[in-house]
Write a structure and sequence with these properties.
Chain lengths: 169, 206
């Protein structure tokens, strides 16, 4: 944590080596986040690159308040929303509406990674975001609520207290 | 609770089983290279004294004139005071004036261009404000110290000599033996009788 603060401080002073260390430490994490959402290697790589560019461009606004990881994932979550918005990738929503009946009714019936990715692709982006951030990255409900800029009770109300109940099950 | 916990573990296991593609090191390097173009520019580290001098030259001439006028009036008033009580009265009454002058100067010269100037000169805005404060405090301290110096000469108390001895030492340190003696002569010849001779004072210090 202390080293991370030092790294960020060095980046704020234009240190390229510190930037190198920080990006290498978080690249795979951010890439995985986008991969769970897009399930496309190339798109995930592009989005990851854009997130790091955004991070560096706004690094001076980061004030060592809260975890850097949460701050970085907030940028990633916002970037993903913009991506869906501007790239007009709304097929998933259309797909959801059409295939509501086919959706898995409980997590217990999902047994392998392929089924998991299929299930994830069928749920709304915000809910998918919550599930990925909670179960893959271990963020708390509070942190997720801050990242997605919603109130914690609203988050729990919409996606269930454990964030796993599908709204249309 | 137990069911939920088991479900959580099950979902975590499922996430761990997903095969996330590993990105080659060269690809990450290229990301670093691209992001490096957006690194903040290294800010110049400028000595606080340099900024203070810059501020001194850019401060309104009216402010300096007001300070000089106040200083002259205070010294003359204290010098011509008939009793030690009135000298102290003048000193006490005049003490907040430098602060008020400084505040007035800060309020009248405040503008939005300062932060922009700070950015364009790559000097942090905080530094320029700090240096401005630094200047204000220096002026205030100088005026108060000099007022105090002349005021203390008017007082009749058993420790009257102590400030002289102290000030003599300070002057000696800054101006050397010859310069100090000259300044001391000027200061003590202005109607004030120094009870401790500066030579003996110097000898005491040695």
């Amino acid at each position: 944590m202390v080293d991370e603060i030092k790294l960020i401080d060095r980046i704020k002073h234009g240190d390229r080596r510190a930037l190198d260390t920080l990006i290498k430490a978080y690249y795979q994490n951010i890439f995985a986040y986008f991969y769970y959402h897009t399930q496309n290697r190339e798109i995930s790589m592009d989005l990851t690159q854009e997130v790091f560019v955004k991070m560096v461009a706004s690094i001076e606004t980061y004030e060592n308040r809260g975890k850097f990881r949460s701050w970085l994932f907030t940028i990633a979550a916002n970037h993903l929303r913009n991506h869906w918005k501007y790239e007009s990738r709304h097929e998933e929503y259309e797909f959801e509406e059409e295939s509501e009946k086919d959706i898995t009714s409980s997590w217990e019936s999902i047994t392998d990674s392929t089924e998991l990715l299929n299930a994830l692709s069928m749920i709304p982006t915000d809910q998918r975001d919550c599930i990925v951030l909670k179960y893959y990255y271990g963020f708390t409900s509070r942190e997720i609520a801050e990242m997605l800029k919603v109130k914690e009770p609203q988050l729990k109300r919409e996606y269930g207290t454990d964030l796993t109940s599908f709204p249309y099950c | 609770m137990g069911k939920s916990s088991n479900e959580d573990k099950h979902i975590e296991q499922l996430f761990k089983s997903v095969n996330i593609p590993q990105i080659p090191e060269q690809q990450i390097e290229s990301v670093v290279q691209m992001a490096a173009d957006y690194l903040p520019v290294e800010r110049k580290r400028i000595n606080l004294w340099d900024i203070a001098i810059l501020q001194l030259t850019t401060t309104s001439i009216v402010f300096w004139a007001a300070c000089a006028a106040f200083m002259a009036i205070t010294i003359l008033s204290i010098g011509s005071a008939k009793s030690s009580l009135s000298a102290v009265g003048i000193f006490v009454a005049g003490a907040p004036v430098p602060l008020l002058l400084s505040l007035l100067e800060v309020m009248t010269t405040r503008n939005t261009g300062r932060s922009r100037a700070g950015k364009s000169l790559q000097i942090q805005c905080k530094s320029t404000l700090r240096s401005k404060d630094h200047d204000r405090y220096s002026v205030e301290r100088s005026i108060i110290s000099l007022s105090h110096y002349f005021c203390i000469a008017k007082l009749d108390h058993p420790f009257k000599d102590v400030p002289y001895r102290f000030h003599y030492d300070v002057l000696h340190r800054f101006f050397g033996s010859t310069g100090c003696n000259k300044i001391w002569s000027v200061l003590t010849s202005n109607g004030h009788t120094c009870r401790v001779d500066y030579r003996s004072c110097h000898a005491l210090r040695e």
